[in-house]
Amino acid sequence: MSIPSDFTEQIIHIIKSIPKGRVLTYGFIAKLAGNPRAARQVSWILHSSSKKYNLPWHRVISSNGKISLKSFEDRQYQKNLLEQEGIKVLDGFKVNLEKYLWKINSIENL
DNA sequence: AACCTGACGAAGA
DNA sequence: TTCTTCGCCAGGT
Question: Rounded distance, CA A44 to CA A50, Å?
Answer without folding.
Answer: 10
